[in-house]
Every structure is written in C-alpha cells, then in structure tokens.
Design a protein that fits this description.
One of its GO terms (molecular function) is cytochrome-c oxidase activity. It comes from marine sediment metagenome. With 129 residues, this protein is α/β, with parallel strands linked by helices. 16% of the residues are buried. Strand 4 and strand 5 form a beta hairpin. The radius of gyration is 20 Å and the shape is flat. It binds copper (II) ion. Copper (II) ion binds next to loops.
Length: 129
C-alpha cells in the first residue's frame, strides 16, 4: 500500500507538471492562426517563409525568436509592426486582411550580415467557397 502511494506521488511529481505545461501551452495558443520561427538567414531564416490566409478573416500570428540575437517583424503594406523581438522571446501580431495579394514581411532589426535576406511573403487569397 505504501509502495503504491509512493508510486502515485512520484508520478504526480514527474508526469503531472509536464502534462500541465503541455495543456497550458495548448490553451495559450488556441487562438493562434499561425506561428513563425525567427532566425538569422544563415541559421534558418523565418520559418515558414510563405503563409496563406483568406481575405477578411482575422489573423493572429506568433513570431518566436529562437535565435541568440534580436530580430523584428513587420508587414509594411498591411501596416503590421511587431517591433523588436529579443532573443528567446516572442510577440503576437493581429490583423484582418482586406485585400487579396502578396505582401512581404521583413525582419526589422539588424541581426546578421545577411539581415536583408530575412524576409518572407504573406499571401492573401479569396475565401474558398
Ligand atoms: Cu533578423
């Protein structure tokens, strides 16, 4: 009986926190439309670099800086600016696209000698019927 109890307590102390963190993360990100990882171009660049959303529907993107230097995020043509994102931090941008087209997004913080290549494309398409 005591052995069973200690096994249960051991499980509660080891597995429960992990399950808790995973559940919390799932809850915290339930409203995200997409997630972009940010790394300097020579370390992987933005990932993904092409995202497609339907016009007229709210978009929530989390940009996670998984690098060791500061990055930034902006979609100038859509007037979206996530500002600077410190290493290891993330930011969330929200917008509702009103027109169909392709819009470049950029890193807005000088992060490496290849900084100018740190970019991608947001494609806004007609809603599928
Ligand atoms: Cu950058």
């Amino acid at each position: 009986m005591r052995k069973l109890l200690s096994v249960i307590i051991l499980l509660l102390c080891t597995v429960a926190p992990i399950v808790g963190v995973l559940l919390y993360e799932k809850f915290r990100t339930k409203d995200l439309t997409a997630e972009i990882l940010a790394r300097a171009p020579e370390k992987g660049n933005f990932l993904p670099r092409l995202l497609t959303f339907p016009v007229g529907e709210p978009v929530t993107i989390r940009i996670r800086n998984v690098d060791t230097v500061t990055h930034g995020f902006a979609i100038p043509a859509l007037k979206v600016d996530g500002g600077k994102i410190l290493a290891g931090h993330s930011t969330i941008v929200e917008f509702t696209p009103t027109q169909v087209g392709k819009f470049d997004f950029y890193c807005t913080s000088w992060c490496s000698e290849y900084h100018m290549q740190m970019r991608g494309v947001i494609e806004i398409v007609e809603k599928s019927p």
